[in-house]
Amino acid sequence: MKFSKHATRRAASLAELAMGAGVVFLVLFIGSFLRVRQDLTSEKRYTLTEATKNLVDSLKDVVFVKVYLKGDLPADLQQLSTATRDLLDEMRVRNPDHLQYSFIDPSAGVDEKTRDQVYGQLQESGLQYTSIRTQDKGSQKEVIAWPGALITYKGKTLPLQLLKSQMMGNSAEMVNRSINNLEYEVASGIRQVSEEYRARVAFINGQGELGHLATQDLTNALQEQYDVSDVRLGGRIDALSIKNDAGPYRINQFEAAIIAKPDSAFSEKDQFILDQFVMNGGKVLWAVDEMDPQLDSLRTNQFSMATPLDLGVDRMLFAYGVRINKDLLLDKQCAPIQIYTRPYGDQPKLETRPFPFEPVVVPTSSHPIVANIDPVHLKLASTIDTITTDSARSIILLTSSRYSRALRSPVRISLNVVDMDLGLDKNNTPERPVAVLTEGKFRSAFADRLLMPDSVLKQVGYREWGRRTAMVVVSDGDAIANPVDLAKKMYYPMGYDKVVQAKVYGNREFFVNAMNYLLNDKSLISIRSRAITLHQLDPQRIQTGRSAIQAANVALPVLAGLLIGVGFFFVRKNRYANKP
């Protein structure tokens, strides 16, 4: 039986089709057993940092994450929800047995009473809701969303706020910032609920340091990662460390100490206690003033004379490679203040003016402590010099702007400076250090100064050359404080500006990063320093050209398919037109 050439060609085509389909199914079958993931984005937004990978790999029990970003959400929150799901998917690929998650719509209740109960439970758990106004076809509507998550590990639950809505800006900017910090926030939360040991941090008291209310925001931030407590030195040799009978030196009871704006001198005994804490590997975060601005006089007389403030720590800092100068900075790049100017009618006029004595420092260093943080707000800051030592190195973290000038002591501080032409464009001392990191091995500030027998020094556990350690020195005590309303007994977040009534500065992030670095939590900083760019569509063009965009999205794919089909038809027609 003979077959026609047409039938033979048709059978060959069917065989090729069957073979191609078989190859596709075979590839899909083999691929179902393989995990091949490739991040093709320019900023590697779907690639976990090594710190996060190590954290997820080290989990010993199940971490369950409940994310409350589901349902009828605005486009910006939908983007945050998608980014959160992508992140958790990437984490789960690393350790699917010990990381699980679910997305929940808290507004999905059948009635208002049920929804209110769910909302109440979420608030009791520590989550905060967000009220967002959105525009839909020219009309506005208010949406209640809960952009947060609850992380549970071995019966311990931690609330996690995913939307950082305190920053000044529109919703797209807030979401972009939240996506930037998403991996850090989730990884930090998982670490908090799963870690077995927490480093100990001491706020030093007894020399007129900032009170609890003025440091409450930083305390809350550090307590998420460390055990934080107050320590009064009071000349007690065992305040920060104890003598180890089995060894020649002392053992620190804390890993780090914070000295937040003291206003009176440390005694010789307290200096010795701090010095030996550093010699035994203790880290110190210094936020100290070198000048006394005498603010009471400034408030009553509109001017004051700033004079040197003797805290008794100059010799210690010099031994560690740092010197805070007795001067004050004027900076053209500064924060605004509100002052009363010439009366308007019979009422004093309140105006907002830039105040050069309050520099706004924009980080330019690539160091992880200051990478990807907002400008830091300082008040009456001094300049810092670094001293070269063979066993330690100093890294400048923050500097003033190009248009700054240092005024040597004594310095006249006047509110009238807001109306003066200071000539900072020409007569300046640009880019002066105001925050420095120094790390290495330090020699005791009491070397060659102690007049005690060697037997007594041995009994005390004195150490002349220290273990490797690090410290951060900031030449402004107010930088570490959060704004306080004494009348209402409440505080605002660090970096909050009362003039614009929003958090606009990166003081909180700077000090948290500094403590993370000092305590060798560099992994957390490496996650925080990532930057992901949000490619936002123009909302105005979307609103005005909505119909055209919708029509194009519907018609163009259909038209493209038709053109491809017509082209394929003519190609086949021309190919087989002359064949019998």
Describe this structure in words.
With 580 residues, the chain is α+β, with helices and mostly antiparallel strands. It has four domains: 1-34; 50-192, Glutaredoxin, CATH 3.40.30; 200-518, no CATH class; 549-580. The strands form ten sheets. It has a seven-stranded mixed β-sheet, sandwiched between helices. Strands 2-1-5-6 form a four-stranded mixed β-sheet, with helices on one face. Helix 3 (75-94) links the parallel strand 1 and strand 2. Helix 3 packs parallel to helix 5 and helix 6 (182-194) runs antiparallel to helix 13 (522-528). The longest helix is centred in the last third of the chain and has 31 residues, at 546-576. The protein starts with a helix and ends with a helix. The model has no long low-confidence stretch (mean pLDDT 84).
Q: Alpha-carbon distance between the termini?
A: 21 Å
Task: Please give the count of helices.
Answer: 15
Count of DSSP E strands? 29
Radius of gyration: 31 Å
How many domains make up the 3D coordinates? 4
Helix amount, in percent?
Answer: 25-40%
Subunit organisation of the chains: single chain
Shape, principal axes of CA atoms: globular
**Largest sheet, order of strands side by side?**
8-7-11-12-25-24-21
Low-confidence stretches: none
- Which structural class do you get from the secondary structure elements? alpha+beta
Beta-strand share of residues? 25-35%
